[in-house]
Input
Amino acid sequence: MKIIRLMLVDDHDIVRAGLRSFLESQTGFQVVGEAGDGEEAIQVALETHPDVIVMDISMPKVDGMEATRRLHALCPECRVLALTVHQDKQYFFEMLAAGAVGYVTKHAAAEDLVAAVRSVAQGNVYLQPALARWLLEDYHRLRTQSSPSPYSAAEDHTHDKDLDVLSQRELQVLEGVAQGLSNPQMGAQFGISPKTVARHRERIMNKLSLHSSTELVKFAIRAGLISIS
Output
């Protein structure tokens, strides 16, 4: 089993110590770095190149949002998982926009954090289910606020055209990504290898001009391939 190399970013020493103890008790996890603020996080990440950065948001000097934004440009292979007290739509959407590929609150169950780390390490998006609904709600709100016009029909037609460029297998993989399935899980479900799933994901992103798994999830919701209940 490949070791998942983690970095912990939180301005409270006791929180980091607790996280380190818990996460390193899990099979396949290794904490390779820690930081107490966003500025230090960037420096340590560039030195250690962790697979997953568990990132708090509210911190002194440089906050988690700005650190995520910079790391997305400087260390794109480092996948940021937000772990925060904030159960707030603004923080949720701004962290995703900054480049985070996961969002979990500190009120979540311990097994949710473990699942989130494993999921983002495998190249997937992990959004705590209770919060993931906000993606769908926000889209519905925008559609409701928009007055009926030829543009609405044009937007739907654009999604239809976008989907037309995808093969049946690519549609299945896109739906699997949006549901949070890992490449091995999709491989087992579709009877293909995880490497083949990864190639399908790459082709989907190229065809749709998307650049992250988060964008794939949003596209799948807009296109009606999945719903969040």
About this structure: Residues 129-145 form the longest helix (17 residues). The domain at 4-133 is CATH 3.40.50.2300 (Rossmann fold). The chain has a mean pLDDT of 82.
